[in-house]
Design goal:
- The protein has about 100 residues and is an all-alpha fold.
- The protein has one domain.
- It is built from five helices and no strands.
- Helix 4 packs antiparallel against helix 5.
- It is globular, with a radius of gyration of 14 Å.
Length: about 100
């Protein structure tokens, strides 16, 4: 199911859909433990990162930031996801700066 959303090209902007996808991804994340193979951890991380990169509420930057904050709370154990969230937050700050013209 998550792979389907990863393959789509359009941005995720529906709050209910984003919440539902993050809950499914949380279930996948919760299955990972210290016994999991690195290849499985990498596969799950890449799927979650693709989903996070697609979250975009347009000019409503606060909603986008709230979704990033929620994702940070859910996926705190995956380093690649944390890096993606930091990068996306920095892009959001740059977008905010451009929208307000400095």
């Amino acid at each position: 199911m998550l792979t389907f959303f990863c393959e789509q090209k359009q941005k995720l902007d529906d709050g209910f859909l984003i919440n539902s996808i993050l809950q499914v991804a949380k279930t996948l994340h919760d299955k990972i433990d210290f016994m999991s193979q690195q290849s499985e951890i990498d596969r799950v991380s890449k799927i979650i990162c693709k989903i996070i990169r697609r979250i975009d509420h347009g000019k409503d930057l606060d909603k986008t930031l709230n979704d990033y904050t929620t994702a940070r709370g859910i996926f705190g154990n995956l380093d690649e996801v944390t890096e993606t969230l930091v990068f996306c937050s920095l892009q959001l700050a740059t977008r905010c700066h451009a929208l307000t013209k400095g």
